[in-house]
């Protein structure tokens, strides 16, 4: 279960990176989407939740003495590159680019 949590944290982190890049590239009304305050707030909340999950997962790994079994960054990097899913579906519900291929590819 802890390995699954490590993978999910890594996947969420990768999704956030992809989402931020997409928001930088996407323009609405002549400005990048990332310049919108509501988008910035949503991304900040996503980052906060991922950080909380990361800290808690690292705490569990240390508490159970599993550091050696996980061999440091390998599971995080493997999971991040293998599972490009995104929590951006919550932004879609607020009109954050409904129907965009970039959003549906990660959802």
Care to describe what's here?
This protein has a two-stranded antiparallel ribbon with strand order 1-2. It has helices at 2-25, 37-63, 67-70, 74-82, 89-92, 101-106, and strands at residues 27-28, 31-32. Helix 1 packs across helix 4 (74-82). It has 107 residues and is mainly α. The model is unreliable at 74-107 (pLDDT under 50).
Largest sheet: 2 strands, antiparallel
Average per-residue pLDDT, rounded, comes to: 75
Main sheet: strand order: 1-2
* Elements, N to C (H/E): HEEHHHHH
Low-confidence stretches: 74-107
Shape, principal axes of CA atoms? elongated
Q: Which percent range describes the beta-strand content?
A: under 5%
How many helices in DSSP terms? 6
Report the span from N to C terminus: 23 Å
Radius of gyration: 16 Å
Number of E strands: 2
User: What is the helical fraction, as a range of percent?
Assistant: 55-70%
Class based on secondary structure composition and strand pairing: mainly alpha
């Amino acid at each position: 279960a802890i390995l699954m949590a490590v993978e999910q944290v890594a996947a969420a982190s990768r999704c956030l990176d992809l989402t931020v890049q997409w928001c930088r590239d996407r323009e609405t009304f002549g400005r990048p989407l990332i310049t919108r305050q509501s988008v910035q707030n949503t991304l900040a909340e996503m980052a906060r939740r991922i950080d909380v999950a990361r800290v808690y997962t690292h705490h569990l790994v240390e508490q159970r003495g599993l550091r050696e079994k996980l061999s440091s960054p390998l599971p995080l990097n493997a999971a991040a590159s293998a599972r490009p899913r995104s929590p951006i579906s919550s932004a879609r519900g607020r009109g954050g680019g409904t129907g965009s291929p970039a959003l549906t590819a990660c959802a």
